[in-house]
Design a protein that fits this description.
The protein contains three helices and seven strands. With 138 residues, the protein is of the alpha+beta class. The protein has a single domain, classed as Alpha-D-Glucose-1,6-Bisphosphate, Chain A, domain 4. The radius of gyration is 14 Å and the shape is globular.
């Protein structure tokens, strides 16, 4: 059985702003990093079932980089995004809660890094997303 980890954040912004920031490449480039030493210099998103995405993630000092890429398998506007990346699967739920939106990201873990490293990295990226959206929300 494959282990799954879930991270969450509650974002104080309208669902339309949260969704747009999650799926718009220019926004992804602003929030998709686990630490200040990393960034996403480019992002591509073809938001449709069967569409591909690719976020180029790099250390700011140029020492390392990789593509976080996959294929969308489910899209329910402003509600759910599911995708595969390599042999793994992830699901993003957008849950309206009054004037806020809870984002819940569940992903299958890999064996290279500890579960806690993976959890903290994905949580850090989600926390960056929250800060970004709350800064730009209308």
């Amino acid at each position: 059985m494959i282990d799954t980890v879930t991270v969450e954040a509650t974002i104080h912004a309208p669902i339309s702003d949260v969704w747009r920031a999650y799926v718009t490449p220019a926004d992804v480039e602003q929030w998709n990093a686990a630490t200040a030493q990393w960034h996403t210099p480019s992002a591509r998103v073809d938001l449709r079932v069967g569409g591909e995405f690719c976020y180029r993630m790099e250390a700011k000092d140029g020492s390392f980089g990789f593509d976080f890429a996959g294929v969308f398998t489910t899209i329910v506007h402003e509600r759910v995004i599911e995708y595969t990346f390599g042999e793994r699967h992830a699901r993003v739920d957008f849950i309206p809660e009054g004037r806020s939106v809870k984002i819940r990201v569940s992903f299958e873990v890999e064996s290279t890094h500890s579960v806690e490293q993976q959890r903290s990295g994905w949580q850090a990226i989600l926390d960056n997303f929250k800060r970004h959206v709350e800064r730009i929300a209308r």
